[in-house]
Amino acid sequence: MDGKGPERGSADLEQWVREDLHLADTAVVTVSERACTKQGCAPVETIVDVAPEGEEPFLIRLAKPAAEVERMDVIAALAFGDDHG
After folding, report:
1. Which domain holds residue 67?
2. Integer distance in angstroms from the first to the last C-alpha of the chain?
3. Model pTM above 0.85
């Protein structure tokens, strides 16, 4: 295995989101991929569903498969919003 498969990418991505948002262990972070059908959208996007305990849940959308997401993609999405506006 090259360490870039979906399982590895998802685990890293979940950890980065937890660290960058300083989430408690009780927060739920779920990573999934789906086909994007919007014009100009990447064929596969990664969706991170974040549900901090006692707070409103929200989504982070990244316009690439989870295995291709880098930490700076997460930082940019958190700072400037997701790739879909």
Report:
1. 6-80
2. 35
3. no
